[in-house]
Design goal:
By secondary structure, the protein is an alpha+beta fold. It contains 18 helices and 35 strands. The strands form eight sheets. Strands 16, 21, 22, 23, 24, 25, 26, 27 and 30 form a nine-stranded mixed beta sheet that branches. It binds one RNA strand through strand 12, strand 13, helix 6, helix 9 and helix 16.
RNA sequence: GCUCACGUAGCUCAGUAGGUAGAGCACGUCCUUGGUAAGGACGAGGUCACCGGUUCAAAUCCGGUCGUGAGCUCCA
């Protein structure tokens, strides 16, 4: 069949001359950026390599978008080279919503340089340079990039396997080592925005030189770019670092980097979350404990933290001995378990704790509430016999489900299996992994397997929650541990009178409460559901005449556990409503002369506005019902 | 920790060529008592992150420290 290819296009079979490109086909879609032929994404102007089904890739397809962004990265590199011919190129991939290119420059970029680069890029777009693919031998490739003094490119070429095709893409005077595919010409990239600059190690390795990473995004049209920038702006408005202080929930100060100040409202929110967790766990047989937060170094040596975690701990030296502030609760719980002779009748023993934990996170990694040095977990350790593992894991997964559903978060499970450097008995590992998988299947949970990513002491399930913006957050972790019971020589007396070794299950559902709260702030954009809201009701007297009536209402609300405030400032009602609305308070109870006479409250909800006068205290009972914790 | 950027009142920001600081909101006092998203007047508030240097003079120029941001790295 030499000389002919059999294609299926738009469901219709036809044959074409070999050497034919997708560009040549009369069926070519106007907005096609690249072409898909049986699993391979190709340049439009590259000769079709094989027979197969043809699909057009546009900006609306993930792969099409990747091609578009990748070509944008080349465009960026070309502009940089025009402005700084001595710049050395690293790599420049496409991202989910943009692209970047790493370059090594003699001088750091100045303010205004981004705009300069952007202008140069637009110029190249205007030139509408054709983008051509070139295939090179290894020697040709090395010679070409050596001539251009592209030392990083040489390193890349040296790493390419000997049987692989080496290709480069040329646009005008610019050429870049690249496997492609790319757009047909630079003119397609109509809208460009360079967004930020940062440092990045060459090949992501700390020992390598630091390069300048230039981020940008691009679209086929200005409208799409504008829309994208608006979305980014929306996300910024939800940023918990912005919303938190403006809703008077928490703040950070230079005096304590990595530790939050919880304001009265934020603390209330925090306590509500903790109480929610406490009630769910209490119903499931958990017992809350409080264990020491500073231990002598010997404990950390025994637990293995000293070897693996010392650099991340706050250490104190007093009376010529070293003390460590706890980064985790597990050793404390192990000691507590060990404090008495335990019977099989005590198992499963579920110890929960919310006390403070500290980790000396590297300064550059701190990030609002998401990454702090002082935090609290909804932590628990389950001491179980081997035949209780399944049932307990099942229980924990059930709790995850209830907890996340309460916040409208969906979740996904990642199952991490035995790593190469595992410790302990292989048979036990196999059994545990089989158990876990069975449980996941029984619950009908969708899960991904992360081979060899378990902890060295046992396999684990990590759970990622998906928030209202579709972002994934790794929150819960459930880990089977065979090692700590060994290290602490834990045992219980079994029914047969023999000492047996328990298994520990480490688990946290919300994970760090600080982080969880940060995520909730962004998930709800600060508009918390009634049961969570720190202030559930603001009572707004219209004139001073109604202040005592308002206070009477507040006392009643308070007695039934509804958190409320009376806004008795001498301001107009509209002003108070505006402030309550901006503070995202779920309910406003307006009380004027009419209400006082008729014994009503005029209700305004945060989401629906004015819903009219309601008889009091009927509305109190409605509120009590609506404000219940979603425990079921 | 590393690279780059940034750091002016509680918050958002202005501050032209180096000549001892300004607005809006918030806050306080007074006036106003108004039925569903901003009533008015007056007032208080800053060692311009901190330390040092250059200069007759530094918020402004230079160096260092701390913090924050975007990333990198790390993340039992």
């Amino acid at each position: 069949m030499a000389g002919e290819l059999q294609l299926v296009i738009d469901g219709e079979a036809r044959s074409v001359q070999s050497g034919c490109t997708a560009w040549d086909l009369p069926e070519r879609q106007e907005h096609a950026l690249a072409v898909w032929v049986d699993g391979q994404v190709l340049d439009l102007k590259r000769a079709l390599p094989q027979s197969g089904t043809v699909q057009w890739l546009t900006f609306n397809d993930f792969s099409g978008r990747q091609v578009f962004r990748h070509s944008s990265a080349h465009l960026l590199a070309q502009a940089v080279k025009r402005l700084w011919p001595e710049a050395k190129l690293g790599t420049g991939p496409a991202l989910d919503d943009g692209f970047y290119y790493d370059v090594a420059l003699a001088e750091p970029l100045q303010e205004g340089d981004l705009a300069r680069i952007e202008r140069e890029m637009k110029k190249i777009v205007g030139e509408n340079l054709p983008i051509e693919r070139v295939e090179l031998s290894r020697t040709e490739a090395l010679t070409l990039f050596d001539q251009r003094a592209e030392t990083f490119k040489r390193q890349i070429i040296e790493g390419i396997p000997h049987d692989a095709v080496i290709s480069a893409y040329r646009q005008g005077d610019f050429i870049d080592l690249c496997s492609g595919p790319h757009l047909a010409a630079t003119g397609l990239i109509q809208a460009i925005k360079l967004t930020s600059v940062s440092g990045a190690y060459w090949r992501g390795n700390e020992v390598n030189p630091m390069m300048t990473r230039i981020y940008g995004t691009s679209f086929p049209s200005e409208d799409e770019l504008t829309q994208h920038l608006v979305h980014i702006e929306d996300a910024k408005q939800r940023d918990h670092r912005k919303l938190g202080p403006s809703l008077d929930l928490f703040s950070f100060r230079e005096d304590a980097p990595g530790f939050a100040f919880w304001h009265p409202k934020g603390n209330q929110l925090y306590r509500t979350l903790e109480e929610f967790s406490r009630r769910l766990q209490h119903d499931r047989g958990y017992q809350e404990v409080a264990t020491p937060w500073i231990y002598r170094v010997g404990l950390w040596e025994r637990s293995g933290h000293w070897d693996h975690y010392r650099d991340d701990m706050f250490l104190i030296e007093r009376d010529s001995e070293v003390l460590g502030v706890k980064p985790m609760n597990c050793p404390g719980h192990a000691l507590l378990f060990k404090g008495a002779t335990r019977s099989y009748r005590d198992l499963p023993m579920r110890l929960a704790e919310y006390s403070p934990l500290s980790r000396f996170e590297r300064s550059g990694t701190l990030h609002g509430l998401m990454r702090v040095r002082g935090f609290h977990q909804d932590d628990a350790h389950l001491f179980v016999s081997q035949d209780q593992i399944s049932q307990e894991m099942f229980g924990v997964l059930d709790l995850v489900d209830v907890m996340y559903r309460a916040f409208g978060l969906t979740h996904e499970v990642v199952f991490s299996t035995r790593p190469d450097n595992y410790m302990g008995d292989l048979a036990l590992w196999n059994q545990a992994e089989a158990n876990l998988e069975e449980i996941l299947r029984d619950r009908g949970l969708k899960y991904q397997i992360n081979p060899k990513d378990g902890a060295f002491y046992g396999p684990k399930l990590d759970i990622a929650a998906i928030d209202s913006l579709g972002r994934r957050w790794q929150l819960a972790t459930i880990q089977l541990d065979f090692q700590l019971p060994e290290k602490f020589d834990l045992h219980y007396v079994d029914a047969d009178g023999e000492f047996k070794r328990p298994v520990m299950i480490h688990r946290a559902i919300m994970g760090s409460l600080e982080r969880f709260l940060g995520i909730l702030v962004e998930h709800y954009a600060g508009a918390f559901p009634l049961w969570l809201a720190p202030v559930q009701c603001v009572i707004i007297p219209i004139t001073d005449q109604q202040i005592s009536y308002a206070q009477e209402i507040q006392r009643k609300l308070s007695r039934y556990g509804i958190r409320s405030e009376v806004d008795d400032r001498s301001q107009k009602m509209g002003y108070k409503i505006r402030e309550a609305q901006l503070a995202k308070v779920p309910r406003m109870l307006v009380v004027g002369g009419r209400d006082q006479t008729n014994h009503t409250v005029s209700v305004r909800t945060r989401d629906q506005g004015d819903i009219g006068a309601k008889p009091w205290p009927d509305y109190l009972h409605q509120l009590i019902e609506e404000a219940e914790m979603p425990l079921a």
